[in-house]
Fold this protein.
Amino acid sequence: MAIKSPPEISAAAVEVGTAKADLTWDRALVGGFLAGAYIAFGSLVAISVSSGLDPKTWGTLPTLFTGAVFTLGLVLVVVAGAELLTGNMALLPLALLRRRITLAQLGVNWLLVLVGNLAGSLFVAYFLAWKSGVIGPSGAANSAAGLEHTRAVAIAAAKGVTESNTQIFLRAVGCNWLVCLAIWLALAANDVAGKVLGIFFPIMAFVAMGFDHVVANMFFLPLGHYAGTPGLGWSNVANNLWWAFLGNAVGAGLFVAVIYWFLYLRGTPELEPSPMGARHDSPTASEPAVSTRQAR
């Protein structure tokens, strides 16, 4: 079979969420660092390709370009393997609803992965984007680095200064609904090309629509602060991340985990853990066949 059916995707997601909850603390942190860095790489290339495009000429096309290349981040997370908080916001609640993990396991995993994502994002933002000179000083307006500076500041100002708390929250709900659907589609595929194609459109869409992703904002907003975005302090950064976290959790937990549990898993026999265990390194790693038993 080329792809999994929706019930099979749901079963595979439970297996992967269970495996992620069983990660040791050090693997969760290191995997989280990688995911934060990978999303930051996608964010940095998104700034690069959309810099210098005058909206008077290009209209809204720069947002399409931004979204198209930003997909690199989740492709690296899924195919290369890493621990992304926003994906775990759907996978672990689904395993919790199937009584395969405890609430404490979910909380510990989210905390460790959040810390790792933040560390990876800040590392790329400070060292590889700012200190490297990829994002140049504000005075270098006619250079590529200067154009990227202008673009980085514009993104940070929009997310960290202009948006209200309600807007951040609602945009974050829509964002992680789409992000977790991208992971859902990647779970459906059994080959790398299918996973990449499944990831591309939902991720491109959420970025093009201007939604808020808490891990991406861990890169965009600190970078904007380093670049001197007017009115953007660390308190603005923390406020945005808080509301984006809440919205992302609702988007993933309610609109993906709960709804797909209700559609395909509620009232069905529980899954036996795979004898070999799901791989811990990727939300779409190969999922072995699972057997069933009577619901408790």
Notes: DSSP finds eleven helices and no strands in the chain. Residues 271-296 have pLDDT under 50 and may be disordered. Residues 71 and 124 are 17 Å apart (CA to CA).
